[in-house]
Specification:
Elements: E1 2-7, H1 14-21, H2 24-27, E2 31-36, H3 40-48, E3 54-58, H4 59-67, E4 76-81, E5 84-85, E6 87-92, H5 93-99, H6 106-122, E7 128-131, H7 137-148, H8 153-156, E8 158-161, H9 167-173, E9 178-182, H10 185-191, E10 195-200, H11 201-204, E11 211-216, H12 224-237, H13 243-252, H14 260-268, E12 270-272, E13 279-281, E14 286-287, H15 290-293, H16 297-309, H17 320-326
Parallel strand pairs: 1-2, 1-3, 7-8, 7-9
Antiparallel strand pairs: 3-11, 4-11, 5-14, 6-9, 6-10, 12-13
Organism: Methylobacterium thuringiense
Protein name: Nitrate/nitrite binding protein NrtA
Subcellular location: Endomembrane system
Length: about 325
């Protein structure tokens, strides 16, 4: 059975890449054909319109598509999560130098950011920050980060959408002053001498629901072997013994660039934070594996709360039932 699956080049696409390239899908009788997509909007539309059978997808975007809040409406469900966490906020070097936070404590950094953002807004030249899509945990983490510094992000900062693979170029050109994006693009910006990782997503929102395997509800039974294959692949990806091979796979097949050491660090949470080589380790930076695959309806409820807090829906209670239906808990094997 041929299955066409779309993904955006990110470290957390590892389970679907491993499923296709290392034989997990083939073992389940699936010819898994992967398609790298240039943006989340393109991936959303191609999945919703039936050009793709499944996708590595932002959890809030998949839910928003189900609700008819973003692009063509489609009855999408998530039979498994692909990862938790994986994002970070990277700020341009000029912005970081202007902030000059006294410590790397999250609240201290957020307060320093808020000060500069208010000053720039008052001067009529607001900061520009990028997110990867309005319906993304990246957008919610940016808002929560700003709130920790006492800043209403929507009132003081210009927010634009930049697809993950284009974020480094956008920082380099000065188009944006910072971005919340997934691995490894923060580290690539640092390695290029363009930015400073200011805050890890896992510190802003621990165990943040990031990507899911999204499929049409009508295909749930037919694609059960795909779920099995991706689950097995995800467990393989989480094994520390496989980090080197996985980093090479992501580099050669995943579109993440030639620096396998950088990719390896994004898989293990051993991060270089700035061009001076300052290091920080957080094993929860990107979580893969069996303990994160289980779909959790409570994640859908949290996403609904973030949509409401961001003004994307009127209230979270109104979509609680849809959130429960979105995360299908009956297909993943124990």
């Amino acid at each position: 059975m041929r299955v066409d699956l779309g993904y955006v080049p990110l470290t957390d696409a590892a389970p679907v890449l491993a499923a296709a390239e290392l034989g997990f899908a083939r073992d389940e009788g699936i010819d898994l054909v992967l398609t790298p997509e240039p943006s989340w909007a393109t991936l959303r539309d191609r999945l919703a319109l039936g050009h793709l059978d499944a996708a590595h997808m932002l959890a809030p975007l998949a839910l928003a598509t189900r609700l008819g809040l973003s692009g063509p409406r489609a009855d999408l469900v998530a039979p498994m999560a692909l990862n938790l966490n994986g994002n970070a906020i990277t700020l341009s070097l000029p912005l970081w130098e202007a902030m000059a936070p006294e410590t790397d404590d999250l609240d201290t950094v957020a307060t320093a950011f808020a000060r500069i953002a208010r000053d720039r807004a008052g001067q009529g030249r607001p900061l520009t920050l990028a997110t990867v899509h309005p319906f993304s945990c990246h957008s919610y983490q940016l808002r929560i980060f700003a709130e920790r510094g006492g800043l209403d992000l929507a009132q003081a900062v210009r927010i634009v959408v930049v697809p993950p693979p284009q974020t480094v170029e956008a920082v380099a050109s000065g188009e944006i002053d910072g971005v919340c994006v997934g691995a490894p693009w923060n580290s690539i910006a640092v390695a290029a001498g363009l930015g400073r990782i200011a805050a890890l997503g896992c510190a802003i929102v621990p165990d943040c629901p990031e990507k899911v395997l999204a499929i049409h509800a009508s295909q749930i039974e037919a694609l059960a072997p795909l779920v099995e294959a991706v689950q097995r692949a995800g467990i393989w990806c989480a094994d520390p013994a496989n980090v080197g091979e996985l980093a090479e796979l992501l580099s050669e097949r995943g579109g993440l660039g030639p620096d396998t050491d950088l990719i390896r660090r994004s898989l293990t949470g051993h991060l270089v934070m700035d061009s001076a080589g300052r290091r920080h380790t957080d094993p929860d930076y990107l979580r893969l594996g069996a303990d994160v695959h289980r779909p959790r309806p409570e994640h859908g409820l949290w996403l609904a709360e973030q949509m409401a807090a961001s003004g994307q829906i009127a209230d979270a209670a109104g979509i609680a039932a849809a959130c429960h239906a979105f995360y299908r808990t009956d297909l993943l094997k124990a």
